[in-house]
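Annotators were shown the component list below and the corresponding predicted structure, then asked to write short factual statements about the assembly.
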Amino acid sequence: MTNIAIVGAGMAGLVCAQQLTQAGYSVRVIDKSRGVGGRVATRRLSDTKADHGACYLKPKGELLQHLVKLLVQKGDLEVWTDTLHELEPNSSSIIPNSPSSLPYTAPEGMNVIAKFLAQGLEIHREQRVNSITLNSQNHWHLISDTNEEFTASSVVIAIPAPQAVMLLEPLAQLLDNSFWKKLRSVEFYPALTVMAGYADSLPQPEWKAITFKDNPVLGWIGLDSSKRKIARSHFVVHSSADFAERYFESELPQVGQQMLQTAASTLNLLWLNNPQWMQVHRWKYAFPKTPLEQSCLAAETPVPLVCCGDWCGGNLVESAMHSGIAAAEHINNKLEQRKLPGINFLDAL
Ligand SMILES: Cc1cc2nc3c(=O)[nH]c(=O)nc-3n(C[C@H](O)[C@H](O)[C@H](O)COP(=O)(O)OP(=O)(O)OC[C@H]3O[C@@H](n4cnc5c(N)ncnc54)[C@H](O)[C@@H]3O)c2cc1C
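Structure shown to annotators:
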């Protein structure tokens, strides 16, 4: 029996787990994936890596600024560029702009950020939680797809809201209307992401990343190889939400090729259409479309149950981290009201 079970080892779940672990609670984090980080994801390729989830961190508030500062000191993060680009609809001119906060990337892949936050935590990987019930002693009882069982006095659900709806559906009788209504109101945009590699003799573009405004097919393209110390070029291309909605279930090689074709003709870089290799990833829940304004969502259950994630208060890594802290505060207030480390938890890692 643990004090707290946390479902999801993305940024929200990891931050929440650190807050509570460092305050002395016994905490178990359970994630369905092999690695940690959720949408802060890096794929290993034959001779390199590509960030097919979060592209960079643009810290605005104190919490993310502090994390970035520590990871820059460790050599894990660095400024990628001081100029990001945009392409207006029906235009061929790529407009440079200086972002208000600089984009930081990780030469070893963005998931080093999650690995840093995961230090010292008890994490059960490759365990998809598919049942949560309240037993007769008022303890949460979680069962995973491999029949692993966890019992806890409090539970934190740190996964995208639509996945939380599916997981908690059988508990509907126990959950108050207000909680249910808010949880169900959160929708997500999907995305399709292409990773594509090219010969090293091709000319390098003058940009590192372009955001496509209102393009029916494309959302973003980045020269991912420029984050790494390698000669060969590879790009990461994210689709628009509309394109992902229409072609989500289509054959991946075809959608990948269609996205590269559009990028090649829109940017007038015809070789983009002929990669040496290509991989495509489906993100069913990529970005919150209708996030809540509050920083976490607690149910009025006999023992604590709270949901958190980027969809509480925003749509990026920074809101996921704030939401993880808010969920930890909620649980702590309901349990023993210990002193939580707050932003200082980072210094202990
Ligand atoms: C393509 C793309 C590009 C992005 N670019 C940026 C960017 O440049 N900058 C930025 O700040 N943000 C970016 N984001 C958003 C950012 O990645 C997210 O806001 C953030 O990572 C969300 O963290 P989270 O902890 O809320 O959720 P997630 O990262 O989704 O974590 C949820 C975790 O729960 C696990 N899980 C789900 N269901 C279960 C279950 N039943 N049992 C066990 N485990 C489960 C998942 O495996 C996952 O690890 C991007 C996202 C995408 C998809």
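Statements collected:
1. Helices lie at 11-22, 62-73, 111-117, 161-168, 177-185, 241-247, 252-267, 317-334.
2. The first helix runs from residue 11 to 22.
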